[in-house]
Amino acid sequence: MDNIYVADMANHRIQFFLSGQFVGRTIAGITGVNGTNASVLYQPRWVTLDKQLNLYVSDTDNHRVQMFRRY
Predict the structure, then answer these.
(1) pLDDT per residue over 22-65, tens digit each?
(2) At residue 62, what are phi and psi to the nearest 5 degrees?
(3) What is the Cα–Cα distance from 2 to 40, expressed in whole angstroms?
(4) Residue 71: which pLDDT band, with cuts at 50, 70 and 90?
(5) How far apart are CA 10 and CA 20, in angstroms?
(6) What is the SS3 assignment for 13-39?
(7) CB-based burial, 23-48: b 16+ in 10 Å, e otherwise
């Protein structure tokens, strides 16, 4: 599909860029906010998708893998 997912560690978020776009949107986490509840991330380092396009994020400093269902 040529879309790009970026784990933005310093800003504690996952950015999504549609193919050909230069401006992304935050699809997981809250820009500049870290924490331990399910809606925030703390230094995410990688992302992957499953066949249903659910997103999995390594939430590194929270020592967990977060799953975000496709919406």
Answers:
(1) 999 999 999 999 999 988 999 999 999 999 999 999 999 999 99
(2) -95, 0
(3) 26
(4) low
(5) 24
(6) EEEEECCCCCCCEEEEEECCECCCCCC
(7) ebeeebbeeeebeeeeebbbbbeebe
If you search the block for the tokens 């659910």, which residue do you land on? 54
Q: Which of 68, 39, 41, 42 is nearest to 55 (CA)?
A: 68
In the three-class reduction of DSSP (H, G, I as helix; E, B as strand; rest coil), residue 10 is classed as helix
CA distance 34 to 37: 9
Its pTM stands at: 0.90
Taking residue 15's Cβ as centre, other Cβ atoms within 10 Å add up to: 19
